[in-house]
Amino acid sequence: MGKEKVSIGNNEQERLARLYGYSNIDKYELKGTFQHVVSTAALAFDVPMAFVNLVEMENILIKASVGFDGNQRIAREIGLCSLAILKDEFTVYKDTHKEIELKGNPMVHGEFGLGFYAAAPLKTPDGFNIGVVAIADKAPREFSEEDGRLLEGLASIVMEELEYRLEHRKN
C-alpha cells in the first residue's frame, strides 16, 4: 500500500460533503457516547484496541479509542478503515498477514504488527459510509457473523449520536 493511490468509492466528493456536515469531526473525545462505544466494543470482543474513526480524503480521524492512545489521525493510505468504508456490511480480516490486499501495509507488516481487524461502517441516512467502528488485535482471531452484527449495532449507536448532534446544532 505505502505510496499507492488510496481506493475511493464512486461518490467520494458527496461522501466527504456528508462527513464534513457533522460538527467537530476532528476533535478527539475522551468521554461521551463514542468513548462508551469503543470501551464496550473492547470489552465485548475481548480485544486490546477499538476505535471510532472517520475517513477524510487524506487522513483517518480517530474520534475515540481504546488501546491506540496518542494518535488522533493516521494516513488514509495505510489505514484499514479506508478499505472497510468501501463495503456496506462489516469487514473482517481474521489474519491480516494472509490477506493479499494488505500485503506491504505498514500497519500489518511493520512495527505495529496488526494481526486482526474488524469494522462496521458508519452509514449516513442517505447511504454514505463516512467512517467505522473497528476492533483490532495484534494476534489473529476468530470472528463470527453474529460478532459482525454486534459491531454493526455499535456503529448504529455512533451514527445516531452524530445525527442527534447534527439535528440539535440546527435548532
Q: How would you describe the overall organization of this protein?
A:
The protein has one domain (12-166): Beta-Lactamase, CATH 3.30.450.40. The termini are far apart. Helix content is 33%, strand content 22%. Residues 1-5 have low confidence and may be disordered. Helix 2 runs antiparallel to helix 5 (145-170). The chain has a 6-stranded antiparallel sheet with strand order 3-2-1-6-5-4. A hairpin with a 3-residue loop joins strand 1 and strand 2 (59-66). With 171 residues, the chain is an alpha+beta fold. It is built from 5 helices and 6 strands.
SSE topology sketch:
Layout: H1 12-20, H2 33-45, E1 49-55, E2 59-66, E3 73-75, H3 81-84, E4 91-93, H4 106-109, E5 116-123, E6 129-137, H5 145-170
Antiparallel strand pairs: 1-2, 1-6, 2-3, 4-5, 5-6
Helix pairs in contact: 2-5
What is this entry, summarized?
By secondary structure, this protein is of the alpha+beta class. Helix content is 33%, strand content 22%. The protein has one domain: Beta-Lactamase (2-Layer Sandwich).
Strand order of the largest sheet: 3-2-1-6-5-4
Largest sheet: 6 strands, antiparallel
- For the record, the CATH class is Alpha Beta
Low-confidence segments: 1-5
Number of helices: 5
Helix fraction by DSSP (H/I, runs of at least 4):
25-40%
CATH-scheme architecture: 2-Layer Sandwich
Q: What is the terminal-to-terminal distance?
A: 43 Å
The structure class reads alpha+beta
Say which CATH homologous superfamily is assigned: GAF domain
String of helices and strands: HHEEEHEHEEH
From the spread of the alpha carbons, the general shape counts as globular
Beta fraction: 15-25%
The averaged pLDDT comes out at 90
